[in-house]
Design brief:
- By secondary structure, the chain is mainly α.
- Helices cover 59% and strands 6% of the residues.
- The two termini are 25 Å apart.
- Pfam families: HTH_19.
């Protein structure tokens, strides 16, 4: 994803208009439009404020997709909260295109069946299914080569 696409997506994710973003950064709406169209790039001095307003990191805006970092923040005294959508944007996008209810029913049925058949706990069942999905992914990846 190019920088302009990242700016546009982040702006839309927090429900800001180009005018509102422009006002926050003391630039014109046309400037925001040029950034989002990759016709211009934000001045270096504007990038930290842009990232702050858009609630993203400077790294997210500036780095290419291959080097995006996962932001880690403290969730509780014994755990961390990872924002996987920064690394895998599909995780914030799929719910608008995939029939989630259908897959939820399928996965719930698989989980219940495995728990009953093998007397696994819910956590163990989910780990086993995750492992099976990953192995299926690897097999399909080999087939594509």
């Amino acid at each position: 994803m190019k920088t302009g696409e990242k700016i546009a997506k982040a702006r839309k994710d927090i429900n800001l208009t180009q005018d509102q973003l422009a006002e926050s950064l003391e630039v014109t709406r046309q400037t925001i439009s040029k950034w989002e169209s990759d016709l211009a790039f934000p001045e270096t001095a504007k990038v930290p404020k842009l990232a702050e307003v858009l609630k993203v990191s400077c790294d997210y805006l500036l780095r290419d997709d291959k080097s995006v970092t996962v932001e880690v923040s403290m969730q509780s005294s014994n755990g961390y909260d990872l924002d996987w959508t920064k690394l895998y944007p599909i995780l914030s996008e799929y719910q608008s295109t995939v029939d989630c209810k259908q897959y939820h029913r399928i996965f719930s049925k698989m989980i219940k069946e495995m728990m009953t058949t093998y007397n696994y706990t819910l956590a163990d069942t989910v780990l086993v299914l995750k492992d099976l999905l990953y192995k299926g992914f690897l097999d399909m990846q080999k087939e594509e080569e």
